[in-house]
């Protein structure tokens, strides 16, 4: 089916019901809004009015010698236009009600997502604070470990031990025999 006229994108929104989820009245209101609110409808409407005037004034009026179906003030056309205006007013109200319904569904979806996002932001903030606290503890422990290494190195120098001159897992070289 070809897409004609102006099409809205609300039906692609995840928070808006569409397709078989809609009632018959809602689907009809959407179709009516899409049809009556389009340029093809406007051009067709003007074409029908012009054809009506030309048909009644020139063709039927001349063929039947001024006994046309709806002569010049076009009273029957005026009646049809008045009826159409009444129907269009109801159609506009139905379309506005459906637009309100769509806006409400989008607002509820947005509100739910906002609450979910607030929860996620709270969780992320809590994790960042915990990470900051743990990073501070790691920094404190690293500073303490550096101090311990410094004290062990100073103790080793005082007792004359050679530091770092042997592979891990092997005993340190015997410094007493070299003197």
Please tell me about this protein's structure.
It is a single chain. With 179 residues, the chain is an all-alpha fold. It has one domain (22-159). It is 69% helix and 0% strand. The chain has helices at residues 24-36, 39-63, 75-159. The longest helix is centred in the middle third of the chain and has 85 residues, at 75-159.
Q: What is the end-to-end distance?
A: 101 Å
Number of strands: 0
Mean pLDDT: 77
Helix coverage percent: 55-70%
Question: How many domains make up the 3D coordinates?
Answer: 1
- Envelope shape: rod-shaped
Radius of gyration: 43 Å
Strand content: under 5%
Number of helices: 3
Tags for this model:
179 residues, mainly alpha, single chain
Layout of strands and helices, then pairs:
Blueprint: H1 24-36, H2 39-63, H3 75-159
Helix pairs in contact: 1-3
Would you kindly provide a brief summary of this structure?
With 179 residues, the protein is mainly α. Helix content is 69%, strand content 0%. The chain starts with 23 loop residues before the first helix and ends in a 20-residue tail after the last helix.
């Amino acid at each position: 089916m070809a897409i004609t006229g102006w099409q809205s994108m609300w039906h692609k929104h995840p928070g808006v019901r569409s397709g078989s989820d809609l009632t018959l009245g809602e689907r009809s209101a959407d179709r009516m809004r899409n049809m009556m609110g389009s340029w093809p409808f406007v051009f067709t409407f003007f074409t029908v009015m012009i054809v009506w005037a030309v048909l009644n004034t020139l063709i039927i009026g001349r063929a039947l010698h001024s006994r046309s179906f709806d002569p010049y003030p076009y009273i029957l056309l005026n009646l049809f236009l008045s009826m159409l205006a009444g129907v269009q007013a109801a159609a506009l109200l139905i379309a506005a009600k459906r637009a309100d319904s769509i806006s409400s569904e989008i607002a509820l979806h947005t509100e739910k997502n906002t609450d979910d996002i607030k929860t996620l932001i709270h969780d992320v903030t809590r994790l960042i604070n915990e990470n900051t606290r743990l990073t501070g503890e790691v920094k404190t422990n690293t500073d303490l470990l550096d101090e311990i290494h410094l004290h062990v190195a100073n103790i080793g120098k005082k007792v004359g031990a050679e530091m770092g001159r042997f592979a891990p897992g092997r005993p340190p070289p015997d410094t007493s025999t070299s003197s």
